[in-house]
Structures are given as structure tokens and as C-alpha cells.
């Protein structure tokens, strides 16, 4: 059984951040679960384009308001607490945060915790 406290993990190397977001990696590849689990906080007024070509991601909105745009179709969907989206087709998307947003995210394959976004908005393929 794995037990982790977010309030402790956010003060360790499990927290990855830049100026507009931070992500606390609660489960990573070395935990052996087959997915990674993150609590991610994104700053109000920020916009992010991602394209996880090598990972599937599901995201549950815990708090805040914003939107996600599917860049293949142009469809825009509102995000608010209780809404989930899943990037089941490695969907290239733009996330826009009206207010600060907190998400619970799962990645498959799991991330190791050291990934950085490449220029195209993806993480490199897992080893």
C-alpha cells in the first residue's frame, strides 16, 4: 500500500513547477502502478498548448474555471469543478484558465517525475 500526503509531497522534489503552473506528482512510474497521478495547479489568466503524443491523460477539475480547445476540431469546452476530460486520441489542445485551476491528472504510461514539456507541448516517449 502506498500512502502519500499532498501537504508533505508539495515540499519535496515531487513538485515540478514553472512560472505559470505547478504539479505535485503523487504517483510516478517507479511506484509500479502503471499510471502516474498528479495534482496540478495552473495560474489564473494563463494559456497553455499541449500535445501529449506519447501519453494518454485524464484530467478532473477540482476547482476553478476555464476552457479547453481541441485544436483539431476547434471545439471549446468549459471547465469547472466536476468536469473531466480525457485525451484519448493524444489530442493537441489549448487550456485557458480564467481563474486559478486545480486538477487531478492521470498519465499512461506513467511519468518519471523529471519530464519537461518539449517545444511541441509533449513529453518525450517513456524509456
UniProtKB/TrEMBL annotation:
Keywords: Lyase
Lineage: superkingdom: Bacteria
InterPro entries reported for this sequence: Ectoine_synth, RmlC-like_jellyroll, RmlC_Cupin_sf
Catalytic activity field: (2S)-4-acetamido-2-aminobutanoate = L-ectoine + H2O
Pfam families (UniProt xref): Ectoine_synth (PF06339)
Enzyme superclass (EC): lyase
Gene3D superfamilies hit by this protein: Jelly Rolls
GO molecular function: ectoine synthase activity
Single GO BP term: ectoine biosynthetic process
EC number, as in UniProt: 4.2.1.108
Biological or metabolic pathway of the protein: Amine and polyamine biosynthesis; ectoine biosynthesis; L-ectoine from L-aspartate 4-semialdehyde: step 3/3
CDD domains given in the database record: cupin_EctC
Job of this protein: Catalyzes the circularization of gamma-N-acetyl-alpha,gamma-diaminobutyric acid (ADABA) to ectoine (1,4,5,6-tetrahydro-2-methyl-4-pyrimidine carboxylic acid), which is an excellent osmoprotectant.
Family listed: Belongs to the ectoine synthase family.
Record's protein name: L-ectoine synthase
Protein source organism: Roseicitreum antarcticum
Gene name of the encoded protein: ectC
